[in-house]
Design goal:
This protein is α/β, with parallel strands linked by helices. The chain is about 40% helix and about 15% strand. The protein is globular.
Length: about 250
Amino acid sequence: MANNIRYFIGNWKMFGEPKSIAILNKINKFVKSDKKLNKKYKVVITPPHTLVQSYAKAFSKQKIIIGAQNCYHKDNFGANTGAISPYMIKSVNAQYVIVGHSDNRAEGDTDEMLKNKVENSLTNKLKVVFCIGENKDHKKNNKTFNVLEKQLRNVLDKKFNSKDIIVAYEPIWSIGTGQIPQPDDLHETVKYIKKVLKNIFAKQSPAVLYGGSVDSKNIGQFSSLNEIDGFLIGGASKSDQNFIDIIKNYYK
Ligand code: PGA
């Protein structure tokens, strides 16, 4: 079982309105009461941009940490309609930002843009959850390791502070589909990711999470994979009960 700190990061995607804070209140209450284990893990929730400020304020002295789901690749203020920069996210006290989610890559995020997003987020003292993952075809054609290595090397620079970066391995074929990797495959893939990271960051490698259809029923299958430092959870993070059960069942 786990020794390092574990992360349970909820990605709400396009979900949530002000009253959805009730979900977080319940999760927060659980984490507070989980005195035996709550020093072993961190809970981060990334609501949509519309809710980041109010939620970050509400949980500023609580157990739950609030992050954002994406940021613009340019920083500060600019003539970019609809864009939100890392500086603006930090200004409302979010602490984390997801960068490179496959949804955003599919909408046109290039490696160059992602590198700028990571760099500007780190400059603004945001912790970055950097997502990578292969699609079905890559997997079928045994290209997974190649693809993951490129995604890492094209964006992560050895000059970045690796302590502020978390890598989330999310196979695209697994996101929202109910399909999860075979434990042996996942073990090998995460080992490979860690090897590449060690090569980029000589000193301290970022934590590596798994994401893709994680829920309270399958989380037990991941508990024995000690090299996985936590989880990026989409659909199941919209339900307080499911999210709480993920944490409970992980430590069962
Ligand atoms: P999922 O999403 O848990 O609903 O598969 C994960 C993600 O996209 O981050």
